[in-house]
Design goal:
The chain has one domain. The protein is 71% helix and 0% strand. The termini are close together.
Length: 356
């Protein structure tokens, strides 16, 4: 099957997307240091969800179009080698440290992290999880990786309307998020998968659209997405939201998360379709790309560092001044000694693709 040249290559590394990752993880760090100044920083996690929805779906679609199948075993092994070694290293280090510092329930928290169930174990308390509380988002993402590829393959083979399927899943996410927000409170509900299903869905729909570039409506949207003004406007609105949005507002559950996901995917769409635009160049500066490629490790380590230091430092400035360089140091160590060695082993699980 021939594909239009307008279709972004799923295997291509876009520096600008790494810049978006850097922006997202720094705002999450800011939120955990000072929730008043970076009150919307928690939404940085949803930028990662939007990116995952797009990138994973594009990879799966590319493999299916090229080979008429998806090697699920290879997909899961690649995800395992990319994600699990760094998590194991985190748990091995943080559980004894948290036990010495008397933070949370270290053994319980470590088990929930390794099983990718922190979103389930911590559903009734925003603070549940101790120094590993932030791994609820890893659980949501891993559950997406587990369920979505199989569901997508079934839909492709049986020619199910994917737009209708995603719309139904998004509606289910809406309804479930509202129920949890009402029964558990919004902070606890935020740590369930349901408010983030619309965000993941927005990324998935972007991938589905770009997989069908010859559709008249898709052509119009891609022309619009390539405009420099669209990229800058989406970026500026996202940054404003990261500063200003309050997490305890019910409107987020009535569509706010979806709106944020749409904005994030508009930015992603612009950056992959117009990689030479001024917005893409701005997101591709070396420091942002460096951090973006290591954003997974940065996210893993920043919260335990802040949790431990926060037991002794009361000033947000002091916490940031001590926590940021230590997090960078641990990030670099994780990248060099844990992540890169295991990533090199992923190649044996890559599908053999013919030209598409």
């Amino acid at each position: 099957m021939t594909r239009s040249s307008d279709t972004p290559e799923a295997s291509r590394r876009f520096d600008a997307l790494d810049g978006v990752r850097a922006l997202a993880v720094l705002f999450v760090f800011g939120f955990h240091v000072d929730m008043a100044r970076f009150r919307g920083g928690f939404l940085g996690v949803d930028i990662f969800f939007a990116l995952s929805g797009y990138l994973i779906t594009m990879l799966l679609l590319r493999e299916f179009r090229a080979t008429d199948r998806v090697w699920l075993g290879g997909f899961y092994m690649r995800r395992f080698l990319r994600l699990m070694p760094a998590v194991v290293a985190l748990v091995v280090v943080i559980v004894p440290v948290a036990k010495l510092a008397n933070i949370g329930r270290p053994l319980h928290d470590g088990l929930a992290t390794l099983l990718y169930l922190m979103d389930v174990f911590g559903v009734r308390s925003f603070d549940h999880g101790g120094a590993l509380a932030h791994t609820w988002s890893l659980a949501v993402e891993e559950q997406f990786y587990l369920v979505w590829p199989a569901l997508l393959i079934v839909a492709l083979r049986r020619r199910i309307r994917l737009d209708l399927l995603i719309s139904g899943i998004v509606v289910l996410g809406f309804a479930s998020a509202l129920v949890f927000a009402d029964r558990l409170g919004m902070p606890a509900a935020y740590r369930t998968p349901f408010p983030h299903i619309p965000v993941l869905g927005a990324g998935v729909l972007l991938a589905l659209g770009l997989d069908n570039p010859d559709h008249r409506g898709v052509r119009r949207i891609t022309r619009w997405l390539r405009r420099s003004a669209v990229g800058w406007l989406a970026a500026l609105v996202l940054i404003a939201a990261l500063f200003a949005v309050h997490g305890d507002r019910l409107w987020l559950y009535w569509g706010g998360f979806l709106l944020f996901g749409v904005l994030a995917t508009i930015l992603v769409g612009h950056l992959v379709l117009a990689p030479e635009s001024s917005a893409a160049r701005a997101f591709s500066v070396f420091p942002a790309v460096w951090l973006g490629r290591r954003s997974y490790a940065f996210y893993l380590w920043h919260y335990p560092v802040l949790a431990v230091l926060g037991e002794h430092l009361t000033s947000s400035w002091a916490l940031a001044a001590a926590g940021l360089p230590l997090t960078f140091l641990l990030t670099a160590a994780s990248w060099v000694f844990v992540e890169r060695p295991f990533q090199r082993r992923k190649v044996r699980f890559e599908p053999v693709l013919k030209r598409v």
